[in-house]
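Morning run. Coffee first, then this:
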Amino acid sequence: MRTYRELFRTPEFLPLFATASVQVAAQTASGLALGTLVYASTGSPLLSALAMFGPSLAQVAGALTLLSAADRLPPRATLAGLALLFALGTGVQAAPGLPLWAAFAVLLGLGVASSLGGGVRYGLLNEILPQRGFLLGRSVLNMSTGTMQIVGFAVGGVLVTALSARGTLLVGASLYVAAAALARFGLTARPPRATGRASVRETWRTNALLWSSGPRRSVYLALWVPNGLVVGCESLYIAYAPAHAGLLFACGALGMLAGDTLVGRFVPGRWRARLGAPLRLLLAAPYLVFALNPGVPVAVVAVVLASVGFSASLLLQERLMALTPEKLSGHALGLSSSGMLAMQGVGAAVAGSVAQLTSPGTGMAAVAALSLAVTVALAPGLRAGRGQGPAGRLRRDGSPDASPRTKETKETTTS
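And here it is:
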């Protein structure tokens, strides 16, 4: 599967795409509104960063307790129910006079629930697409994320000015309701991918199994840590340039969209192994310029270039699926998504803390330098074939498989 026409002709991909797109638009506009509201009332770069990205930190709790349900719940009902939960939570945040602690409590609750949503969504994507279509489908969802973030931040900035931050939160809640309707009436009722009872114990057991493989462990760390630290840079846009934060967010989404389009659709498979490392370095390097406190034009260029580097995640996710038994795909992708989002919360906290003591530009440059250091440290474990056996394959229990390749064996693509 190499064309968008083939992809959108696949049954159920279009409603899944639409559901995800509307939900991202809701999340983007709501996050910008809440971050603006918190910064206006507190003047704190740390609190405004955590208001936008703090829910990601709560993904840790969800990843440790809820993820076994990602393959054990019916996908359609779960996605629709979660969207309604997010609508309710966003509506509560818009209530006048809501204490700051209560707004953050709601944020944390929604963050825990989000860990389950990522596993269900991307597990369903892996189920409805043939294996060779996963990277293209994942790239299109990422492109949708980039597009909706551009729209969400641009329109959200206008709505914050025209309707106020609380009015924008209500618009976000309405979009979540629309996403729930798209999931309920657009997706087919499918049974769970796995049997058995979801539990905290089962979540821990499967997490341990996924983490026990050295190749998977390297991929997870590369997906989580460098990306999360760079999102810490993004969390300081409001503090760095309050009047142009929406522009910086939109330009970042534009760069991510460009990178996902190129890697997902146009880069041949033989080039992917060569592009992985440069893209991971590109993700953080441009943010070093913020140590000089550049003006908005230079900042925009740096943000666009760095955001292209997010496309390295596509190659890492494709590799993760090649290293994971199919019956654990939802859990594995949910752990990937939750870990990424949790590290985004950590990155926002670290960047916000540095900015609180120094300046927003210094905070952005500091976490960018840390991201580069982590990327370099992880490079040996991501070299093609390291610790994976001759074909880079694993048995169904997750252990290395050194048996000869057969026609039925899933083909592994490394980055």
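The longest helix spans residues 13-42. Good start to the day.
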